[in-house]
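README: folding subset

This subset contains proteins for which both the sequence and a predicted structure token string are available. Records are stored as plain text. Below is the entry for Acyl-CoA thioesterase (139 residues), shown exactly as it appears on disk.
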Amino acid sequence: MQSKNLTCTEEVRVRFNETDPLGIVWHGHYIVYFEDGREAFGRQHGLTYLDIQKAGFVTPIVKSTCEHFLPLKYGETFNIVTTFVNSVSAKLIYKYEIFNQNNQLVCSGETIQVFLDSENNLCLYNPEFFQAWKDKMGL
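--- output ---
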């Protein structure tokens, strides 16, 4: 079954403290940029960490991948494109693409988060609030 993609694009500027002695963004900051993308996605599509917490759940990351192609430098702007990957599993899967100001692909990656209830039990089925969100989004 083909489902629609939900995406969000967020523009960010490289800050001085994100660069290394070579003058490029330190590789560890790309994972932070992915989080910036997730937060922007949540604000745009109504699935923020606060919404998840209010429903009584947390969503720790259990897997993250990141591939680097080009560097970013201090002062440059870039776009984080975050795409929600629909799954029947009780997971949040996001794919990321980071494009520099020349629209060149700088980095791509993915994160997978699972749902834990208030007693830190792993949810094997979509929590009710999450399934309602998916239904509302046509997923």
